[in-house]
Amino acid sequence: MVPVSRPDQPDVPLILPRLEGPALSMRAFRGDDVDAIREAGRDRLVPLITTVPEDADQEQALAFIRRQHDRLRRRAGYSFAIADADDVAIGQIGLWLRDERHGRASIGYWLRPSARGRGLAAAALAVLCDWACTLPQLNRLELYVEPWNEASWRTAERAGFVREGLMRSWQIVDGTPRDMYMYSLLTATQR
Ligand SMILES: CC(C)(COP(=O)(O)OP(=O)(O)OC[C@H]1O[C@@H](n2cnc3c(N)ncnc32)[C@H](O)[C@@H]1OP(=O)(O)O)[C@@H](O)C(=O)NCCC(=O)NCCS
């Protein structure tokens, strides 16, 4: 059975399913995923746009993992570790439910630098979207990407997202308001 979010049951934690894709899976973060988080914490961008701590030590990486589990308890959204064929974590992808009451969810993702350049983010995004489109309360999935981040917006387009426009000064990144492309995918087109 597909676990569904129930906006009418605010005290019931979300249930994170395990999702399978070609040569990857998406699952809950585990304690042995710290290497992936620490590697991502050495990336220039990831600590600026996520809660991955810059140059995270072991304890900070474990705290990041605990926060991901807490997102389910607080019904903030579904935070998946992306894992390779050996079940080693290579990144994160999240489906965030702040605007669930409007039928919208937003998506964010990163790969550890050593896993980039092989189309794995696009594969993970496609699997996430296939599952998200089965959630009856969602009509629209959104992504926001800075124009310079071509690897990210190409990843979105490969998974079927459509660019709707440029949101000017949409988000503060590193202390500066940044323009973002708004991408969307309508769940009805996938059902
Ligand atoms: C965004 C991210 C997940 C993409 O994963 P990736 O493995 O680097 O992406 P890929 O190498 O598969 O590239 C995806 C596409 O972008 C293209 N691309 C990659 N780097 C590029 C670059 N510097 N300039 C132009 N195109 C680029 C690839 O050719 C590929 O195109 P295709 O789909 O037409 O074949 C990864 O770069 C990352 O984690 N970045 C840091 C965090 C981040 O930016 N998250 C997204 C925030 S919106």
Describe how the helices and strands are arranged.
Layout: E1 19-21, E2 24-27, H1 34-40, H2 46-49, H3 58-73, E3 77-84, E4 89-96, E5 104-111, H4 120-132, E6 140-145, H5 150-158, E7 162-173, E8 176-186
Parallel strand pairs: 5-6
Antiparallel strand pairs: 1-2, 2-3, 3-4, 4-5, 6-8, 7-8
Bound molecules: coenzyme A (COA).
Order of helices and strands: EEHHHEEEHEHEE
How would you name the oligomeric state of the polypeptide chains in this document?
A: single chain
Shape: globular
> Mean pLDDT across all residues, rounded?
94
What is the CATH-assigned architecture? 3-Layer(aba) Sandwich
Would you count the extended β strands for me? 8
Radius of gyration: 16 Å
Most strands sheet = 8 strands, mixed
**Distinct compounds present:** coenzyme A
Do you know the CATH topology?
Answer: Aminopeptidase
The level 1 CATH classification is Alpha Beta
Q: What distance lies between the first and last C-alpha atoms, to the nearest angstrom? A: 17 Å
Low-confidence stretches: none
Pfam families: Acetyltransf_3
GO molecular function: protein N-terminal-serine acetyltransferase activity; protein-N-terminal-alanine acetyltransferase activity
Organism: Microterricola viridarii
InterPro entries: Acyl_CoA_acyltransferase (IPR016181), GNAT_dom (IPR000182), Ribosomal_N-acetyltransferase (IPR051908)
